[in-house]
Amino acid sequence: MHKTAVVILNWNGLGYLQKFLPGVIKHTADHETLICIADNGSTDGSADWIELNHPDVKVIRLGKNNGFAGGYNLALEQIEAGYYVFLNSDIEVTDGWLKPLVRFMDENPDAASCQPKILSFNNKEYFEHAGAGGCFIDKYGYPFCRGRIFTKFEKDKGQYDSGTDVFWSSGACMIARNEAWKKCGGFDEDFFAHMEEIDLCWRFHKAGYRVCYLPSSVVYHVGGGTLPYTSPFKTYLNFRNSLFLLHKNLPDRKFHRLILIRKILDGIAGIFFMAQGNFSSTLAVLKAHRDYYKSLKKLKLKRQLVKKLGEKDFNAPVLNKSIVFEFYIRGNKTYSSLKLVN
Fold first, then answer.
1. Which phi and psi angles does 83 have, rounded to 5°?
2. Sequence ranges of the domains in the chain
3. How does pLDDT run across 68-103, given as a tens digit for each residue?
4. Is the predicted pLDDT of residue 156 greater than 80, yes or no?
5. Measuring CA to CA, how many Å separate 235 from each of 22, 188, 265, 267, 321?
6. CA 92 → CA 63, 95, 130, 219, 224, distances in Å?
7. Domain 1-89 classified CATH 3.40.50.720?
8. pTM
């Protein structure tokens, strides 16, 4: 059993692996750490390339594209380690990036997961979309980050160089405790991709764990490597999975009111897309709601399972107002202009 396993989920990412895997090996490899590529049925020869050029890297062939959630769940069934590190294939790591994360987890046994500072690979002075300086949600389930709210990206001036508890850690790069992962059931495979890490971290909170951000570890993320940010399919996943997330995890006292408000906000977003002539995104929102309603029976069962973990998430850091209103109406474009309250 290894102390730590760095697991990169790959789907037709040969170009990224050729560019970034050598750096991961250089800055990560030691006798306590396993580096593993979980291949989601790639057809570009990437799995063969790894085995030929990097024989010390473990390759798990999953046979087909199981999505982000399903791919990691299947891969981790075949890996035994104290800590799992989820790392996107389009990330450049830095010298010494892993040790602070492992040390933090060793020293904080109540932490289920932790993420590093995530900056943009293409504009290295700025925070990147997926993770930035630590991640949160508002009361309606909209995610945002220190350093990135919607389309506003802040320059890294050291303003988020303090470690802190966060609501969720980014699936682009995060370390998770094996014990917490198994206790909380891993990723929900019905999410397929996007927001499954938020769902997992919400369950971590419910089970009484902390979720954290550690700026002494830094990585650079290309972003949108597998699915571009402007993709209608990504829009569909984000809207559908937001409803999945809320339905599974909201406390009973807030459930009906917040679900209703979120549906109304989604409707407004669909109208906004239509007004812009972005009909594919409007259709994506409609499909997301259709598939949410088709999933209600399954979601009801999942909600009961989540409740068994406990209700300790009342201390989780949540913005108790609308980030949409704060950003678009009040003009609060940065994290520092918000007041985060539980």
1. -130, 140
2. 1-89, 92-171+189-342
3. 999 999 999 999 999 999 999 999 999 999 999 999
4. yes
5. 33, 19, 14, 13, 23
6. 26, 10, 14, 6, 14
7. no
8. 0.95
